[in-house]
Amino acid sequence: MQSNxxxxxxxxxxxxxxxxxxxxxGKGPLHVRLAAALKAAIERGDVLPGTRLPPExxxxxxxxxxxxxxxxxxxxxxxQGLVARRQGSGTWVEPVGDxxxxxxxxxxxxxxxxxxxxxxxxERHGAISLFAATxxxxxxxxxxxxxAAEEIDRVSEHHGYWPLGYPPLRQEIAKRLTARGxxxxxxxxxxxxxxxxxxxLTAAAFVGPGEFVVLEDPTYPGxxxxxxxxxxxxxxxxxxxxxIDLDLVREVLARADVKxxxxxxxxxxxxxxxxxxxxxxxxxxxxSDHGTLVVEDEAHAELAFDAAAPPPIAAxxxxxxxxxxxxxxxxxxxxxxxxxIRAPQPVLSHLGRLKAxxxxxxxxxSQVLAALLLQRADEIIPIRIEELRSRSxxxxxxxxxxxxxxxxxxxAGGLVLWTKLPHGSASELAExxxxxxxxxxPGSMTSPSDWFDDHxxxxxxxxxxxxxxxxxxxxxxxxxxxxxxxxxxREVGVIG
Length: 496
Hints:
Helix content is 48%, strand content 14%. It has 17 helices and 15 strands. The chain has helices at 13-20, 30-43, 56-63, 67-79, 98-107, 110-125, 139-154, 167-179, 194-206, 221-229, 246-255, 277-290, 345-359, 364-375, 377-402, 426-435, 464-495; strands at 83-86, 90-93, 128-130, 189-192, 212-217, 233-240, 243-244, 258-263, 293-297, 322-327, 339-342, 407-408, 416-420, 438-442, 455-459. The chain starts with 12 loop residues before the first helix and ends with a helix.
């Protein structure tokens, strides 16, 4: 890792402000706000371990505050174990230790806990879920169930354990990837229990406590949980119209020993960004140059409304620098719980041994059904895409009609609409929405840096009548929330 003796940027006001990102907008005394902003910058990796923070007087001048404010902020960070104050040497960001592992344990699985909570609430109280991007089943799931039962009966004399996956399913996945431009053999495919297990396996196999991982910001919440669970230090990179910001990734790779980059190049969750071929080439080259592993999540790749997504990043990589993961749950049925990992055989063998420790192999009946579905994929997927295209247009129209201040870009594929609030907090709105019978995912839950609390991720996977009723409930919640905001502003005005 580079820059172990480097100060936090050149010490200029604009550079520090960029790293602290609007620190003064918080609540409480100035030194509390500054400490919170510095803590967040350290946790998201904008300020790396071993970095010397600016001298108190210089930072005070750059931020237009008193020196005592910076002194108090640094003291607070030292008390939390985030920095060390060295006599005559300044204030330094501490290496990863017990604090980071504790923080990982505290924050891990928050999205899963939230999902379990809202699912339970949904069942008990009849709330409409606009929370999870889990589609209902295609008709072929029911149609092929009898044929799957016959196949299961045929193989029932076998013990049923295939740690790497049911061979016919591995063959079908390999064919599908090859057709998408990534030449793949059956021996390079590992079947997993959904893409979530695939992500968790890469985290367990390749990342240890204190090691650096780059995640998109925003990104799939389950990926944040999986990599936090390892005790990794997460460095966030913003997502634009063409995917993860590769200029920033290049800078991060130059100054930190990054173990792994997680990216969703095809209809990114939640922004629906699509990475073009040139950027895929570039990311593969960056990973190869720096000896960093790319884990690309292709769960939404086949859900293009118009032009097909480019080939996976692994198609442009040499050697073992890219691992590709995917899911059949997003295409055929959320309850199918079948995912996969594609990697060079030596890497796959390592992942397969690790998966065997977890479960000895995924459910055979689901795999048998998945293989039959893939055999008819060219017939089934266009039907699913037309359904999603229609529901995406409907959801966009509903949001524009009932929530006219909310903004969004029309997705070209995938499963979700990434909406921006005109003001306020999506986390606070989520509580009001729940009271009004609608469950939503605040944007902050998609962010490893806890940003995007002014966004809401809205899936368009539900039936049209459910989408319409859900948005109407959300609109009532938004009106109620805006009324609360107005009352708070008036109370603050009176106090002032």
